[in-house]
Specification:
The complex is a heterodimer of chains A (about 450) and B (about 325). Chain A is of the alpha/beta class and about 450 residues long. Helix content of chain A is about 40%, strand content about 15%. In chain A, strands 10-9-8-7-6-3-12-11 form an eight-stranded parallel β-sheet, with helices on one face. Chain A is globular, with a radius of gyration of 28 Å. Chain B has about 325 residues and is α/β, with parallel strands linked by helices. Chain B has eleven helices and ten strands. In chain B, helix 4 links the parallel strand 5 and strand 6. In chain B, about 55% of the residues are buried. The chains are: A alpha/beta (about 450), B alpha/beta (about 325). At the A-B interface, helix 8, helix 9, helix 10, helix 11 and helix 12 of A face helix 7, helix 10 and helix 11 of B.
């Protein structure tokens, strides 16, 4: 991505004045290429070079933020087609649609469920972030009132959706501080909405006629007007076609640096299926394949929870394993006679081990040691799950004050540390547990303190 | 000037493998493009949805939601198999030989093989026999199954590095298909395919199981390994990875705590049936997008939803 050091060097004054802090222009160019310096440090660089460098180094997919505060959604800024190549950085915002002809109870229910469907998982908050407020009556006052009600009542980020410029203008002016996404500029409304978006300084969606050409025409026009924060809706609503377009848009932006398609995309799943179950699968498709904002007709926990898990999985950094926090986890209300088990903090290990203990219904203490996200076998091989490290963790974590017995269960794969661990723990007995988590319930049911 | 999208250049193709025999035989694989990328190269064989049954009554292990559709047949694997095919449209049937597990019921290989044979004889669709991933026990069971079902072109799974010689030989001898199973790693998948090739298993008889992680429980690892296999097979001429892929989705997803919590235990997670079905279906959709040719599912509603997804995508 971007220019090489040599390419940048050609654009610099080549005077080696040293005022930028490094002795030569070449060294400065290398630092620029590596992202270690900023162009402003050079007092003599030409305007032309500045422009060229700025446009070359801009991210291929425009990063932008919709909304403000807790529920602000950062989208765009992606750099790869496949998550294993680097990582997907900005998880898509999930939204439900409320409209001006919807009755109050229905809107209120969605707002309540927006707040209720929030879950904690490995230190992360799983939740939806957005509402699409849709104008179906052409009544500006009603539309603005609904948008305000949703915003005040939930704090969610908003997409303001109307095909009438005046209606959108009314709500956008009233709520511009909330930085809503204005939806959407078409060939007919691009001029007026482009001006509006500039005036209120909010991001603007474009809606094509179902072809990428129509999208390109719109983004080129709006870019020429000076707008930068755009979001693409191609206008297609057929699953197969939308999938193709999402792939082509991401590819054009990344592989060809094709600026007119270098923007995040919005998916209207509610317009692509006729029931929430099918909509959920549409949403799932575009969580994996390149959607940045995904709207559904409703928020329901049975649909949101699985989507949250998927989003978490797909947007996990493949180079850095998810971890559970080091500490003592009481499971099934343990007391001073309950077994004590220890394992590593790789999140999958933690989930599976704690799940098996839970399903055994045996009250237990699970001590999770920080192994930097390595699994038991890997951590043991790397010396991060040794008699010494486990011993020092168990001595310090406070579990010794919670139980009367002096027995600890270690994972079967770490059997080799038991001798060293007994020495560290002074007077405790180390029992080797099963190798596979699935055998834990069987093991716990017959466990006795030594 | 009209916009010219960049096309991905493909240099490889996934091989075709035919499971089962007769009218109901199913051919999988064959795609020359990334999953559902039919706008740039052909994929003549759509991905398939298989349904799993157990060779024993799963009532002690399954939640109410998963049991409900099969209440009348859970104790009779052959009737259960027929119901999957006749009532729910299973195109491939997977028998999980859970009763053989040495850590649980530990039924003898002879008993297990007898039940499997009954199931195979009860249906016309292709059958995959999925063991318990215990090398010694799987070898014992699969040898017998292979012999008793000679010529039916079953797929036998999992065939791992530790037992490929024995199970691979049984498949060779009785003309079954090998499901080469490796622990979520492209290189290990490739290596096992090479070992099986050296043993004499031909590419028309080989399917890859890269090991499936459940939704929220490591799905992303399987997803990325499949995408890497697709890239290697279709764009980097890696011939050893050009085999179709199967993913044992239902078995993994329904193991997780969240798929099984009742409405009383977790009111905040909503309707338990719809939640479980969507967890299973979303995992299946992700793995189909990543490259799976067969997804194995448990709940009939998931089968319906995922089939609907495939129809709209091809």
């Amino acid at each position: 991505m971007g220019l090489t050091g040599i390419q940048i060097f050609k654009l610099l004054p080549k005077t080696n004045c040293g005022e930028c802090g490094v002795p030569t222009c070449l060294a400065f160019a290398m630092n620029l290429a590596g992202g270690k310096a900023e162009l402003e440090k050079c007092p003599y660089v030409s305007e032309e070079a500045k422009e060229k460098l700025a446009s070359e180094s801009a991210p291929p997919i425009r990063p932008l933020t919709i909304g403000v505060g807790d529920y602000a959604v950062k989208v765009g800024g992606e750099t790869v087609l496949f998550r294993h190549e680097k990582t997907f950085v900005n998880p898509p915002g999930l939204a439900a649609v409320v409209s001006t002809d919807e009755d109050e109870g229905s809107v209120g229910g969605k707002m309540d469920r927006f707040k209720a469907c929030q879950y904690d998982r490995v230190g992360l908050k799983l939740r939806a972030e957005m509402f699409v407020v849709q104008d179906t009556s052409g009544d500006a006052a009603k539309f603005t009132a609904l948008a305000r009600k949703v915003s005040d009542g939930t704090g969610a980020s908003l997409v303001l959706m109307s095909d009438k410029v005046d209606v959108l203008k009314d709500a956008a002016s009233a709520l511009k501080d909330k930085k809503p996404l204005l939806y959407a500029a078409t060939a007919a409304t691009a001029d007026a909405l482009g001006e509006l978006a500039k005036e209120v300084a909010c991001p603007l969606a474009v809606k094509g006629d179902g072809s990428l050409e129509s999208v390109i025409a719109l983004t080129e026009k709006l870019t020429a007007m000076g707008l930068k924060d755009l979001v693409i809706d191609t206008g297609s609503r057929e699953l197969k076609k939308v999938f193709e377009e999402q792939v082509l848009i991401r590819r054009a932006a990344l592989k060809d640096k094709f600026r007119p398609l270098g923007f995040p995309t919005i998916i209207m799943a509610n317009e692509m299926a006729d029931n929430l179950m099918a909509e959920t699968l549409v949403a799932a498709t575009f969580i994996a394949k390149y959607g940045a904002v995904i709207a559904m007709s409703d928020f329901q926990p049975h649909s949101l929870f699985p989507l949250f898990l998927e989003r978490l999985n797909i947007y996990t950094d493949p180079q850095r394993p998810m971890t559970a926090e080091q500490g003592i986890y009481p499971i099934n209300n343990p007391d001073e006679n309950s077994p004590v088990m220890v394992t590593c903090n790789f999140s999958l290990t933690y989930f599976i081990v704690s799940g098996e203990i839970e399903s055994s219904r045996v009250p237990s203490w699970l001590c999770v040691q920080d192994t930097e996200g390595l699994s038991v076998m890997t951590a043991w091989a790397a010396g991060k799950f040794s008699g010494e490290s486990v011993g020092s963790f168990i001595n310090k974590c406070g579990i010794k004050d919670k139980v009367k017995h002096k027995t600890i269960v270690i994972p079967g794969y770490a059997a080799g540390i038991s001798g060293e661990l007994e020495e560290e723990l002074g007077g405790w007995t180390v029992t080797v547990g099963p190798r596979e988590a699935s055998q834990i319930p069987k093991f716990l049911k017959v466990w006795k303190a030594q | 000037m009209a916009f010219q999208p960049t096309k991905q250049v493909y240099s490889g193709r996934i091989r075709e493998v035919t499971l089962g025999q007769g009218d109901k035989a199913v051919t999988i694989g064959g795609k020359a493009a990334y999953p559902f990328h039919t706008f740039e190269a052909e994929a003549p064989r759509p991905p398939r949805v298989a349904m799993e049954i157990w060779d024993k009554d799963p009532s002690a292990d399954w939640s109410e939601v998963a049991q409900a559709p099969f209440k009348d047949v859970l104790g009779d694997p052959a009737a259960w198999a027929k119901k999957c095919v006749d009532a729910y449209g299973a195109e491939i049937l997977v028998v999980q030989t859970k009763s053989a597990d040495p850590n649980a019921e530990n039924r003898s290989a002879a008993e297990v093989a007898e039940v499997v044979t009954k199931v195979v004889n009860a249906v016309e669709v292709p059958v995959v026999v999925w063991g318990v991933a215990n090398h010694d026990k799987d070898v014992e069971v699969m040898r017998l199954v292979a012999e008793k079902c000679a010529g039916r072109r079953l797929a036998v799974s999992p065939v791992e590095e530790g037992d490929y010689k024995q199970i691979g030989a049984a498949c060779l001898g009785y003309k079954h298909i090998v499901v080469a199973s490796s622990p979520i790693d492209v290189n290990l998948a490739k290596q096992l395919n090479i070992l099986l090739g050296n043993l004499g298993v031909v590419t028309q008889d080989m399917i890859i199981d890269p090991t499936t992680g459940g939704l929220g429980y490591g799905l992303e690892y399987t997803y990325s390994v499949m995408e890497r296999i697709m890239q290697a097979a279709l764009t980097q001429e890696d011939e050893k990875l050009q085999q179709p892929i199967i993913a044992n989705v239902g078995n993994e997803v329904w193991k997780s705590k969240e798929a099984n919590l009742s409405a009383e235990d977790a009111p905040e997670l909503g309707d338990p049936e719809k939640r479980g079905v969507l967890m299973e279906s979303i995992a299946a959709v992700d793995l189909l997008l990543a490259g799976a040719d067969v997804v194995v599912l448990r709940h009939p509603e998931s089968v319906k939803l995922v089939k609907g997804f495939i129809e709209k995508m091809i």
